[in-house]
Input
Amino acid sequence: MKVNAAPRILIVAGLCAAALIGLVVSEGFARQSGEEVLLPMEAVDPRSLLSGHYVLLNPAQRLEPGETCPTGGDLEWVALQQSGDIYVVAGGAESREQAQLLGLPVKGHFTCIEPGEALPGVEATPGLVTLSLGIDRFHINQTEALRVEQVLREQNVDAASRAFAIVSIGRDGRGRLKGLVVDGERLELTWL
Output
C-alpha cells in the first residue's frame, strides 16, 4: 500500500508539533518544580544592553575590597550559597557531588575579577563575580525592556542591586530563567 505525499507530510508535521509541545510542557514543569534562587544582576555594556524586545542578562555579584574570589570558575559545576534573600557563588567543582558539598549545585561556570586594594591616593575598588548558566536573555515587551534597561544603567557600585534574575535550579542541575525582580516588582515568563 502506497501513501501519498500529502498525508505523509501531515503525519510528520503532526509528530513534530507533538514533540515541540512535549518539550515546552516538560521544560515548563522543570522550571516550576526546581528550587528558585535570586541572583543579583549588573549592567552589561549599555550600547548593546537592549536589542529588540529582550534584555541581556548578566548575573553577577560584587565583591567588597578585602573579599577574595571563589575558586574553580573554569570547572563544569558552580555551587551557590544563600546570603540573605539572594544566592551567591561559593565556588566551582568538577562534579555535582563536589559542588553539593559547597552549596546548591548548578551546571555552569563563573569568572572573577579580584577587588582592587587601596593605594596611597587611590580608593579600593570592588571586584565582580560573573555567573554563566546559559541564560542570557529575558524576552519582554518593549516598554518593560526599556524600564529594565534604565534600572540596570542607573545601578552603581555603591548602592544595593535593584535587579535580580529569578532562576529555577532543576533536579538535572540546569538553571532555567523564570523571570526578573526589578525594584521589587516580579516580572515572570508566561509561555502557556
